[in-house]
Design goal:
This protein has about 425 residues and is α+β, with helices and mostly antiparallel strands. It has 17 helices and 16 strands. The strands form 3 sheets. The protein has an 8-stranded mixed β-sheet. Strands 13-12-14-15-16 form a 5-stranded mixed β-sheet, sandwiched between helices. A 3-stranded antiparallel β-sheet has the order 2-4-3. β12, α14 and β13 form a beta-alpha-beta unit. α6 runs parallel beside α11. The structure holds adenosine monophosphate. The site of adenosine monophosphate has 17 residues, from β6, β10 and α13.
């Protein structure tokens, strides 16, 4: 491409990453405010971690996952080409911060919540973006206690529910401890090997490397054989069984709708015991919305894996971008009636010069103002005031600028009254 042709090329946002336009902000504002409310109610303290972390943080915590192996945005920078990555998920960063800031010494449980953008080089489609928002509710505790699994699930469930999304259930499973999982993995491998003829070359490779992930695959051939696959519940040790039963009892006490799903393993390596996803019951016409609205699980080994002292922990993460998709599809937020605003019209150079100061005086007096400072003629500005639907226009001309007054015009009747500048806020407030 020639230099001049390149100059004219219209640049667009990167594939899979989207602008959030003013018309959609109401959904995002509602989601963020609801997150704040839920986090605060259940005593989670908000934490922000950087968007960029050392690549090793994600590699160490989730080495086998597709997310780390295939979807990370890698960044190398500085003299030493330090390997870094855009964060693909939130838990590893929060666990790093827990260690780095000595939170082990804080009174436990330490409950941390986050909200922000994450990055994965995923295949873009509705509900799958390369930059997307997640919230998260993480609990670090001194013992492995199922009550925290329930509380983290509860926070995410209440977040989704408070956004008025109906028909969400919790798909839940346990993957036990690494120890009791070993025997199960052998059985699972043997099962897939005995079905070797029905597997693709990739799936055969996965049978050896990560049979749990294969069990979770959405491919048709796997779905067909899944009901025959060995069930993890038959391979749990006593503690893992008790832990899982207690989590379910808490969910029942809270009347949270859950479904047992023994094929749910989730894509991240660091989980143990409980894993879960929030799944939407779709209505007619919502075919594109068949992805989980959130997920999470227990990760008792992550802090140790990152160099800290062993710390039991559990977390849940609502996928805010997908949740907003549903809110938009179902029109779950209506626009707030805009605040009533007056329209400031200037006529002439001196009034224009004083306009910004007048707006500041009105701002201090709590009067909302709209203007069209770039327009000069009275007619054009009145037209803009009409378009805005302003009930009152303030007309500031040469004479008024010298006399420190302003004309208040009723846009409906056309009636006008001149008042001193220092009285204008009071009069306007009375009329609105
Ligand atoms: P994960 O970190 O994979 O457990 O994801 C937790 C939640 O984040 C998912 O259930 C989704 O709702 C959301 N999520 C994950 N990946 C994406 C993506 N590429 N685009 C939009 N949302 C996502």
């Amino acid at each position: 491409m020639s230099k001049s042709a390149r100059k004219k090329e219209v640049l667009q946002s990167v594939r899979g990453m989207h602008d959030i336009l003013p018309e959609d902000q109401m959904y995002w504002t509602r989601a963020y405010e609801t997150y704040k409310e839920v986090a605060s109610y259940y005593n989670f303290q908000h934490i922000d971690t950087p968007l960029v972390e050392e690549r090793a943080l994600f590699e160490r915590s989730n080495d086998q996952s597709e997310m780390v192996q295939k979807e990370m945005y890698l960044v190398s920078t500085g003299k030493n080409k330090q390997p870094m990555a855009l964060r693909p998920e939130g838990t590893a960063g929060v666990a790093r911060a827990y260690i780095e800031h000595g939170m082990k010494k804080w009174p436990h449980p330490v409950k941390l919540a986050y909200y922000g953008p994450f990055f994965r080089h995923d295949k873009p489609q509705l509900g799958r973006y390369r930059q997307f928002f997640q919230a998260g509710f993480e609990i670090f505790s001194s013992t492995i206690d199922p009550i925290y699994d329930a509380q983290s699930i509860l926070a995410s469930y209440r977040f989704i529910e408070a956004l008025k999304i109906k028909g969400v259930s919790i798909h839940i499973n346990t993957i036990g401890t690494p120890k009791c999982r070993q025997a199960y993995l052998q059985k699972l491998k043997a099962f897939f090997k005995s079905n070797g003829k029905k597997l693709t070359a990739d799936q055969k490779k996965q049978t050896d490397e990560n049979p749990l992930r294969l069990l979770d695959s959405k491919e048709k051939n796997i779905e067909e054989m899944r009901s025959e696959a060995p069930n993890i519940l038959d391979h749990l040790d006593g503690d893992s069984k008790d832990h899982f039963m207690e989590v379910l009892e808490y969910l029942e006490d809270l009347s949270l709708p859950y479904t047992l799903d023994h094929t749910l393993v989730r894509g991240l390596d660091y989980y143990s015991h409980t894993v879960f996803e929030f799944v939407l019951d779709r209505k007619e016409g919502e075919e594109g919305l068949n992805l989980a609205l959130g997920g999470g699980g227990r990760y008792d080994y992550l802090v140790e894996l990152l160099g800290g002292r062993a710390t039991p922990a559990v977390g849940s993460a609502p996928g805010v971008s997908r949740i907003v998709d549903v809110m938009k599809r179902r029109q779950l937020v209506t626009a707030k009636r805009p605040q009533k605003r007056v329209f400031l019209i200037h006529i002439g150079e001196l009034p224009k010069k004083k306009s910004l100061t007048i707006i500041e005086d009105l701002r201090r007096a709590n009067v909302a103002v709209t203007e069209a400072l770039g327009k000069a003629s009275l007619g054009a500005q009145l037209k803009s005031a009409d378009k805005e639907g302003s009930a009152i226009a303030l007309i500031f001309g040469q004479k008024e600028a010298y006399e420190n007054s302003i004309i208040i015009r009723d846009m409906k009747t056309g009636a006008q009254e001149t008042v001193p500048l220092d009285k204008v806020a009071k009069v306007v407030k009375k009329r609105m």
